[in-house]
């Protein structure tokens, strides 16, 4: 329910000062691993947004409540791949998805940060919200324990397909963890729709960053 008070948190400055001369690389540390993320200024999806930092931090500090080890995890709108990399470090079977034009940078970051680790190898796949879901991700063979989403809601026209995608993948037993910076009235309207469809809890708020982190599950009739 939305009545339980959320945890009030701050996004920790856990990225290390950049030693790299390149402007396009950010260094983070999660779950004891240094993660180097290459950003791309051409695409929205290729920059690390605050929701990704909030969700990564939350997954790291709440491993007992949300144990990702050996779980099937799907990230939608994976962007630079930071959240997927953190989920992978925490032991999940990760499928990171995004639009075709983001996949090259996403694949690069994921393989670079996970190749030497003794963990399940993550998969990177194209997913255009609301399109070809039955064909590309048939329900019979694609069941996810967790759906992760960060900063997927901003000023864009794909909000209806995004909601349809969340509904498609959220089966009984699936937990959707969604972190987002709330800026516009459209963001709050989307939140209202999520609350109308799913059982929704605000787990944490990061007031300095205007980020809310929500957990949503299917309503069992």
TrEMBL record:
GO MF, one example? methyltransferase activity
Query: Which GO biological process categories is it annotated with?
Result: methylation
What keywords does the record list, in alphabetical order? Answer: Methyltransferase, S-adenosyl-L-methionine, Transferase
Which InterPro entries has this protein been placed in? Methyltransf_16, SAM-dependent_MTases_sf
Q: What is this protein called?
A: MT21C methyltransferase
Q: What is the primary gene name for this protein?
A: Mettl21c
